[in-house]
Design brief:
MetI-like fold; mainly alpha; about 290 residues; MetI-like; globular; 13 helices
């Protein structure tokens, strides 16, 4: 009887989390996949099986192709920059400098601010003419510019905001990893007359690779699920220059009420993230451990 209880109790403890995970993650994902093969029901018209029609129509959907391109550019621009900046900030606040605690708090502060509040703050920064960025650039003779109204600059402006917002969060992971590195390594390198750059390149950076893989996965996921800043700052404009995949899914589902096509878009988004996760875990994970 006691042996039976020991086997049952762990499963009972896991049951609440399993139910919540299934109810809010796995079951909706399965239903979304199923709905992507049906037409959206409207009024008295029931849902009808349409097969791969939604997926084939994506190839001729210019907004979807623009959102896919924008998201790829957004991820390629924000992920490496956020990783590099967070690593640099972690190295700075891990060193023995005055005001280290205040600097750590300053770097981490953007992370705790609400997404909507951050978007409104940066709306003021990007305001043409009297915004902080134009005021600063005006000191050097630059003319005012509509940063969020120009197709050439709107996506880059969102990328700058994302890097500023996420770098402080990723810094915490790098800081924890740096504090796990034995100080005897740097002491031995100093006795050998090794430069700081050589020590970082050959010792510190390889030891940080597992953390970098973890941060990279989270940064890529964040880059494909961004929607708050787009809604507040640009609404995908101008001319879909800042439309990202999740924002397009939101528009199709809740503005155009085409939930079936939105389900197909969601399946594609999940497939892209699954493919990236497979590459990262299946390929990169074997090469990140320092030997």
């Amino acid at each position: 009887m006691k042996k039976t209880n020991n086997m049952v109790v762990p499963w009972l403890l896991l049951l609440p989390a399993t139910v919540l995970l299934a109810a809010f993650t796995h079951i909706p994902a399965v239903m979304t996949f199923i709905n992507s093969f049906y037409r959206t029901p409207r009024g008295n018209r029931p849902a009808r099986f349409v097969g791969m029609d939604h997926y084939s129509s994506m190839l001729s959907d210019p907004v979807f192709m623009a959102a896919l391109k924008n998201n790829a550019i957004y991820a390629l621009g924000t992920v490496p920059a956020a990783i590099a900046l967070s690593m640099l900030m972690a190295i700075i606040v891990n060193s023995a400098i005055r005001g280290r605690a205040l600097m750590r708090m300053s770097f981490f502060l953007p992370t705790v601010l609400p997404m909507i509040a951050v978007a409104n703050i940066w709306l003021f920064f990007y305001t043409p003419g009297y915004g902080l960025i134009d005021q600063f650039l005006g000191l050097f003779g630059f003319h005012e510019r509509n940063w969020l109204g120009d197709p050439d600059t709107v996506l880059g402006s969102l990328m700058m905001l994302a890097i500023w917002k996420e770098a402080g969060f990723f810094m915490i992971f790098y800081l924890a990893a740096l504090q796990q590195i034995s100080p005897t390594l740097s002491e031995a390198a100093a006795l050998e007359g090794t430069s700081r750059w050589y020590f970082f390149r050959r010792v510190t950076f390889p030891l940080l690779m597992p953390t970098t893989l973890f941060v990279m996965i989270n940064a890529i996921i964040n880059s494909f699920r961004l929607i708050d800043h787009v809604i507040v700052m640009t609404r995908g404009g101008p001319d879909n220059a800042s439309t990202l995949l999740l924002y397009y899914v939101y528009n199709v589902a809740f503005r155009f009420w085409d939930t079936a096509y939105a389900s197909a878009l969601t399946v594609v988004l999940l497939a892209v993230l699954a493919l990236l996760a497979f590459v990262q875990f299946g390929v990169l994970d074997r090469k990140v451990h320092y030997k």
